[in-house]
Amino acid sequence: MTSSDGIPARSLPVSARAPGKCVLFGEHAVVHGCPELVVAIDLSTQVVLRAAPQLSLNADPNAAESNPYFRAALDGSWRGGPPIAVRSVTRIPRSAGLGSSAAFVCALGAALGAATGGVDRAGLAQRSFEVERGAQGVGSPGDTSASVAGGYVALNGGPGEPLWTVTAGERRWSVRRVEDPRWSWVVAYSGVPRSTADAVRAVAERLARPDGPALLAEFEEVARAGIASVGRGDRRETGELLRRNQELLRTVGVSHPRLEALLAAAEPLAEAAKITGAGAGGSIVALPRAGREGELVRTLARAGALPLPVRAEPLGAGLVEEPPAG
Ligand code: MEV
Fold first, then answer.
1. Which of 6, 166, 217, 313 could form an SS bridge with 141, CB 3.0 to 4.6 Å?
2. Statement: the pTM of the whole predicted model exceeds 0.90
């Protein structure tokens, strides 16, 4: 399967999987139209849909009311359909800035899309963004597009193959493929959960101050250069740009003492490290120095984080051809 293949039609039971993500450049600024670089990571969520006497998510019959992502996904493509039991399992820590909600929404969207006649990838990316934004109320399509496409993707920039355009009213985000440099990364969850919506709103207020346009211009410059340097596999320049991006994230107020402690711990063993995703808690991402990945993982664990070595997951959202029994 490649990222240009669609999700084919299937009858129930149907199972699908979608990866989490890690933002390398341009989080927050992307909400305001700047470029972003996101990589789909090899930690994923899998869902299984079966015909059932009543609608449920992980055996909870109230989830369609209590879980905004589940509710928005059903509203988008299943209301009026027959009852289904949905099972969801994930290896992505929740509220950690690693795309657990996008992976759930994209896996569920792929499975529902298959059960309703199939969906192409551009359609799944648009639908998944609408579901995530419907549940969160704010945000860009970076997380959902990376989860649908797999690999490295750039929003609003880059010279790579155009994948699709995602829209919300007048807003448009172009999504392009970026060459995979085949690096491994270490993400580390601080254990401090955060709300993407709250962080996005706080940053929007910060960017409304007089220096906001200059900050956005710098976010843009760093992300454009970052997309180019990752695409040509330049670790040294990528490290410098990751550090500049981290400075900007501090300036817009999404750091946290736990994140600063993890960044300091990573420093001697990494080309660079930065907050990834919404910040104000959540995770950091580090590009390990050659041969130091294991030491970096142990150091971040000793510093109290949950470190996870990750690589790009090239496939993106897709069906799991043999749903587990039961
Ligand atoms: C979250 O992964 C990235 C943010 O820019 C929010 C978004 O783009 O939806 C903080």
1. 166
2. yes
